[in-house]
Design brief:
The strands form three sheets. Strands 1-4-5-8-9-10-11 form a seven-stranded parallel sheet. Strands 2-3 form a two-stranded antiparallel sheet. It has a two-stranded antiparallel sheet with strand order 6-7. It has a domain at 46-288: TIM Barrel, CATH 3.20.20. The protein has helices spanning 9-14, 35-44, 47-51, 54-67, 81-85, 107-112, 123-136, 149-158, 166-174, 176-200, 217-234, 257-261, 276-283, 302-316, 336-347, and strands at residues 73-74, 90-93, 97-100, 142-147, 204-209, 238-239, 242-243, 246-250, 267-269, 288-293, 322-326. By secondary structure, the chain is α/β, with parallel strands linked by helices.
């Protein structure tokens, strides 16, 4: 699928190449805050039905691009598609989040886990990527993604979301070899999955390490960062004559940015608890940075929101290598008009050649 891009600012910025303005996209830019998303979800019947239907996934992926002048699309999917393909009985309960009917708690549970084939068990994601690329017609790049092995493992072991991570931390302390076997298996599955997304047309890929911040520094290096490094090293580097940038994002990982930047990724996402100027000093010129407006700023009055956007832009400073984003995803209670204010403010910020 060879296709010229009308707007390649995101790809250039992720590779620290000069751009005339800061590119932007937003985590969870396709979501419940948009009335058109809620209408599609009502037609689909459930969140999982949207994820597993390429036509619905494509429709939802494109919705924010039709409303806002964003510089990237991100595949509409979920970080739990891999364990869903492992037949663990994933369901999304209203108001409760994801739940697994069959959590992974023992060495025998880990031994039984299959290695999903993206061409079969995850075909709906691959087909969605191909369809989205076709429907984008080169407007902007498409970002593919997966959850980090550690983050996906937390849901598999806990059986759903958790505030204390008691089950997986008992495994970490009491049966670390079992946990490493699980994480290594998930890393292999993620490499296959992301490479299949790249093959189908994803032009950048991102690893979401949502729960890495729940670990100690030493645990983060051993149980999360190590496996994300393995994945980055094994991903297809080029597609259709262009480098495919790799983004790594650990929520709550500001103290470890320097180590994260050293694993072989092209860009590191930064949450809102770290100043971008400090992040830039830590990573130097090794990687681009992505972020990092506090998502709650979208509830502020327009003039306050514009000031917060400017503060983030100025905190990075001049020069290439910044993609504007939130420090985490848009929440469902955000007014879509506030997102329009944000997009306008970022696009109005001019750079002197980079």
């Amino acid at each position: 699928m060879t296709q010229e891009l009308d707007n390649d600012l995101l790809l250039r910025a992720l590779l620290r190449q000069p751009t005339p303005r800061r590119p932007l996209w937003l985590m969870r830019q396709a979501g419940r805050y948009l009335p058109e998303y809620r209408a599609t979800r009502a037609r689909a019947g459930s969140f999982l039905a949207m994820c597993t239907n390429p036509e619905y996934a494509c429709e939802v992926t494109l919705q924010p691009l039709d409303r806002y002048a964003l510089d990237a699309a991100i595949l509409f999917s979920d970080i739990l598609t891999i364990p869903h393909a492992m037949n663990l009985g994933l369901e999304f309960e209203a108001g409760e989040g994801p739940r697994f009917a069959r959590p992974v708690r023992t060495a025998a549970d880990i031994e039984r886990l299959p290695l999903p084939d993206p061409a079969r068990e995850l075909r709906y994601v691959v087909d969605a990527v191909s369809l989205i690329r076709r429907e984008l017609r080169g407007r902007v790049p498409l970002i593919g993604f997966a959850g980090s092995p550690w983050t996906v493992a937390t849901y598999m072991v806990e059986g759903g979301g958790s505030k204390t991570f008691g089950a997986i931390k008992r495994m970490l302390y009491g049966a670390p070899r079992d946990l490493h076997r699980l994480l290594a298996h998930l890393a292999r599955a993620t490499i296959l999955y992301l490479n299949a997304q790249i093959e189908a047309g994803a032009q950048a890929v991102m690893l979401f390490d949502t729960w890495g911040g729940a670990l100690t520094p030493a645990q983060y290096r051993e149980f999360s960062l190590h496996y994300m490094g393995e994945i980055c090293a094994s991903l297809r580097r080029e597609s259709q004559g262009r480098v495919v940038p790799r983004i790594v994002f650990t929520k709550g990982g500001g103290a470890w940015l320097e180590r994260t930047a050293a694993i072989g990724c092209d860009a590191v996402g930064v949450d809102w608890t770290t100043d971008l100027a400090d992040a830039r000093r830590l990573v130097g010129d090794r990687v681009a940075l992505q972020g990092n407006l506090d998502p709650a700023a979208l509830h502020a009055p327009p003039e306050v929101l514009r000031a917060e956007v400017l503060r983030v832009l100025e905190s990075f400073g001049r020069g290439p290598g910044h993609v504007f984003n939130l420090g985490h995803g848009i929440t469902p209670d955000v007014d879509p008009e506030r997102v329009a204010v944000l997009v306008e403010a970022v696009r109005g910020y001019r750079l002197d050649g980079g």
